[in-house]
Design goal:
CATH architecture: 3-Layer(aba) Sandwich
Order of helices and strands: HHHHEHEHEHEHEHHEEH
Helix content: 25-40%
CATH topology: Rossmann fold
CATH class: Alpha Beta
Structural class: alpha/beta
Distance between the termini: 42 Å
CATH superfamily: Vaccinia Virus protein VP39
Number of domains: 1
Largest sheet: 7 strands, mixed
Shape: globular
Number of helices: 11
């Protein structure tokens, strides 16, 4: 029936051993991309990333986690795109991250694995996506180092547990840069960074974010090319945490709509 919620016909897998191996096209694209990025992954990290993808492809037949179903394209558009932030975050010594709007687990899970992060929090407002994330965390042996939470970012940003506590806050294909600055920067610890995945020319979006950057006392903004073969227009926008942030931020969605920064 049109409009009915997603209903799997069979129980969704929770163990990677129940799933088929990834095809050679996935392996080739991922190997080629990692080589082009100059990124080496330990075998256990590579296995965790591959197993995440295997679960993603199995679950997305019942739950809309991604519109990309071809394994080779998952390697390029999801995995490699996520791993583009490993190098700049390694350079900053980042060992923990909070990922906003994690959905199918990108960029949070591959990025946390690639960084060897000691802690990662994957946040999504959709319960069934959080159940998927928890399944991947358990199946890939990251329990204790990664956690998925069904929550609104506004609530976390006003909670002492998370406000100003994260070395990096990440967001991919979530919302505008201006919105991300207001939502994410209050979660970033002093000396930390907000990372936004963006595409194409960024002049207009950066200009539109100037008010938010000023209001939240943001530090320098850096643009980094993703460096992923076939994703020439993909870029990372890194916003450094700057001065003190007014406790009013982030405002609730209605207030942000009424009074954009």
């Amino acid at each position: 029936m049109e409009g009915a919620p997603d209903r799997p016909r069979n129980p969704l897998p929770t163990r990677v051993t129940d799933l088929p191996e990834l095809d050679p096209g996935y392996v080739h694209v991922l190997d080629e991309g990692l080589a082009a990025m100059g990124l080496e992954l330990p075998p256990d990290v590579r296995q965790a990333i591959d197993d995440h993808v295997r679960l993603l492809l199995a679950w997305t037949t019942a739950i809309n986690l991604t519109a990309i179903r071809e394994p080779a394209e998952v390697a390029r558009l999801h995995v490699l795109d996520s791993l583009a932030a490993v190098r700049p975050l390694r350079e900053r010594g980042v060992t923990g991250l909070l990922d906003i709007g994690s959905g199918g687990g990108f960029p949070g899970l591959p990025l946390a694995a690639g960084l060897g992060a000691r802690r990662a929090l994957l946040v999504d407002s959709v319960g069934k996506k959080v159940r998927f994330l928890q399944t991947v965390i358990e199946a890939t042996g990251r329990t204790g180092r990664a956690h998925a939470e069904n929550a609104r970012v506004e609530a976390l940003a006003h909670d002492a547990r998370d406000r100003e506590q994260w070395p990096a806050v990440t967001a991919r294909a979530v919302t505008s840069l201006a919105e991300l600055v207001e939502l994410g920067l209050p979660l970033v610890a002093p000396g930390g960074v907000l990372v936004a995945w963006k595409r194409g020319p960024l002049g207009e979006e950066l200009a539109a974010a100037e008010g938010a950057l000023r209001a939240l006392n943001a530090g320098p903004v850096t643009i980094v090319e993703a460096g992923v073969p076939g994703l020439d227009d993909h870029r990372l926008v890194l916003v450094e945490r700057g001065g003190p942030i007014d406790p009013v931020f982030p405002r609730d969605p209605a207030e942000r709509r009424r009074r954009p920064l």
